[in-house]
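Subject: Interface between my chains keeps coming out wrong

I've been trying for a while to get a sensible model of this assembly. When I model each chain on its own everything looks fine, but I need the whole thing in one frame so I can look at the contacts. Pasting all components below, labels as-is. Any help appreciated, I'm running out of ideas.
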Amino acid sequence: MSVDDVTAAFADGPALIPYVVAGDPSADATEAYVEALAEGGADVIELGLPFSEPIADGPTIQEGIRRALDAGMTPARYLDLVRDLDVDAPIVCMTYYNLLLQFGDGDEVETFVETAADAGVSGLIVPDLPVEESAELEAACAEHDVALIFIVAPTTTPERVERILERASGFVYVQARMGTTGARTDVSEDTYESLDRLPEGDLPYAVGFGVSEREHAKAIVEGGADGVVAGSVFVDAIAEAESTESAADALREKAAELAAGIDAAESDETPEPETTK
Amino acid sequence: MSRSETVTDAGKFGRYGGQYVPEVLMPAVEELEDAYERYVLDNEDGFMDDFRARLRDFGGRPTPLGKAENLSQKYGFDVYLKREDLVHGGAHKLNNALGQVLLAKYMGKERVIAETGAGQHGTATAMAAAYLDMPCEIYMGRTDINRQRPNVFRMRTHDAAVNPVDVGSGTLKEATNEAMRDWATTVENTHYVIGSVVGPHPFPTMVRDFQSVISEEARRQAAEQLGRLPEAVIACAGGGSNTMGAFHNFVDDEDVALYAVEAGGSGLGIETEEEYAPNSASLGTGSVGVLHGAKTKLLQTEEGQIVESHSVSAGLDYAGVGPELAHLVDQGRVTPVNVDDDAALAAFHRLSREEGIIPALESSHAVAYLEQYAATAAEQTSGDGPRAGDGPVIVNVSGRGDKDLDTVIEESAKRDLPDAPDMEVFRS
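Reply #2:
Try treating it as a single job with all components included. I did that and got this:
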């Protein structure tokens, strides 16, 4: 798996990018969930590697992370899990910087990137690593052909967007709102403003933070996004389900619903030149 | 030089420090960096003059450097106490809280938030916010709310909102996570008043600068009162704000030994299975990692999960430590030592009984280290050069212990402490 696999996932129209926490509530369940998400229409799968202090995540994902840690998820088990997965959608690992650093004994992050690439991880999102601190990780990702996905926030200034785009690969994660992750009931006005502010470039823009319904996905794509990221809605479904099977069903259904929203936006769209790709 | 050229080195202390925060916060961190440089470093609009005047008139500074006569006699060398317990509010915390709330005012922010563990920083921020007429919200873990009730009352009395944090162990680490999340949502009109020399640049440097009034005064007072520099400065270290404040102006005085006294709790090391450290000795025993915006020394598992720390003193109970302190330790300039719960409690009673000063349990750790220091001095009876026991020692009494009386009485009853009073008076 490689950077190109991530980018290719956006080639046939806007991509659906669901997120779940690995090991929530067990590694076996996660395997089933990832497959269900792929069946539901996921183009890229964002798989959270749980860290004890998830400062960029809201209450729903914090709880998922807590469940995964309590169930014994570790970076090594995470990579075993990824190795065992049998899905075509590229896997993007979302985690915090300290776990990458400790995999290399607190000294370096290349060991993690190399091992992750070997296990089948195609990309990394590290929400507590701003572009200023990312030189070492960027070099390791370039060396091992792993996409380094950065987040662009509503507060990000044009100068920062430029700096971020210089370092980013795979796609750019556009944070639709202020604050932390979490499902909301509407699509933020900030979303459209965020997309409008971004320059046309080579990388796809995927919008997330708050996506939970078909209409959100549709509205985001209509707003010009190349992809839709949704996390809390899936983590919630896992928390509420009574069995692995019913959770997998719920995930498949929700993924299909969001994928349908994306498709609806596509078919409604009046033909116009490609905006951002 | 443009910012983009210098930015990779922003706030680095050797391998430590930096800015490990979500992108949504970076513009605010950059804005704060700019405000710090203009107002604090360049005294724009007379900010530092205003700050110093308010430290004097509202904070009660300068605080005395007073000789502990009875302890000096006991140990055979002069012990001087830097009396931060006499700062308004009863601890050094106001030095920083006042500086940051005032800075928020100068920056045109409309609201301040803060995290608090023991409640001292929350109380100081609430006091400063009331004084400067700034709306204030404090994040505090549920466990801490329950064990620090008087401080919760104080914050509420100053009209600060107290937001309980129920996740995890409900202590400082969780409160900090939650305050960062609030800031990520409200960053455009809100300043986050971090309570220690931790967090992303410029916080460690800025908080140190606000706290360095401690060593600025102490160094001048030593020259005036003693006619010389101290042989050593001893301060307790949790996050490290009183430590850096007490050390900063002595760092270049190579003959002044600097001891950072950490909480040894009930034992050193980490219980990996339970993801628990029965201590808070990150500086002396931790390993390099990234937490709450900075690379520093942490109590963590091999995988990098942050463990729950412990100390009888809630204010020292933190798994991380300021990056500059970590660097000064690596350089050999600061010596990390530790004192366990028992020794800290004994020192609490010793200072109360011998000197008429009730120290905070945090500060009691610094006072307790005098025992080890005296033992070292006794061993070094010959040899060349300066050695422990030759000259005066300054202990930073970072706060007063009224807030800790419940804990101390409860914990003392479980132990055999020579100086602890009995509480027979309550039994009728």
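Reply #3:
Confirming on my end. The two ends of chain A are 21 Å apart (CA to CA).
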